[in-house]
């Protein structure tokens, strides 16, 4: 409730000021002035100017008219304190703006415009009324204080209403979005237009899914607040500023999708940087509702690979880079057994075994060339030859006799070497 002190009464001068205020209120037609305010709002406030909803325009005009009648009535009261709430139609206006996507700053700008035009109308009209200069000045000062206090107090009330309604709407939208996403991921069938409406995200076109998370041992309250903002930045990089959908899953995980025109993996790889506590996995680009599901599944699979690798994993992992490891690690226990069986002593998690594994991997990558292997590793050719001889001694057979198996085992060991037990 706005409580506005109009000053003390009792003297002849006060009564003259009151009379002048009443005369001003009589001289200015609030209905005509409200039409001018409505026209100014729809001309000078961009969000209203772009809105073609005739119902909202009519309601906005009614808000202006009822507000001016209340203000005029307040200025005419004989008591020195006026207690005013916004008229009911004005109290309901913020919710209408929220539902139509008109931002809070536009509503406040509309009130400031109305205030500006009311002040101008009173200043213009008072100059035409007969009164002593000091009475005229004091009447105008009281009116100006009243207008300012009223707009200030009502703006606070309506801002609170707007924020509450927006939060209520967002909570409802977030719940519907999360339920729809889970229904789709669980295999539910849904027409594209219905899915787009529920998700507030266009499911046509091509999507890249991503998952942003922090491990339970890493996050704290400060990082939790920033996780969704990091996810928004990830979506912006992946989608090049296009449409992004985020779905928080608990406190420490956010699922995300970005609509893309062309997925430039090299660009995303170069631009995507995340703070140290945060992990990100990114799926491949895929079209339509089926693609929305597929790319999320790929991001989920990449996350499993990243967790399999533990602290050896990069902070950002792309499914494109770990697709083979995804298949190899589908059964982690079997994968560990496979690594032990194929690499034997080379699977151990120590510096010497890691050096030998690296040498074998580069040697195979370089098509069995000791010279190119030595160049890549920055060692002597004879060092490579000696290491390969040691490797084959430890394996008990030639590397080439089980090349495919050894290459697969090396990839698995790079992600998660076997503990030395």
From TrEMBL:
Query: Domain PucR C-terminal helix-turn-helix, which positions?
Result: 356-410
* Domain of life according to the entry: Bacteria
The CdaR GGDEF-like domain extends over: 193-305
Q: Which residues form the RsbT co-antagonist protein RsbRD N-terminal domain?
A: 31-173
- Give the family, as the similarity comment puts it: Belongs to the CdaR family.
- What is the name of this protein? PucR C-terminal helix-turn-helix domain-containing protein
- UniProt organism field: Tsukamurella pseudospumae
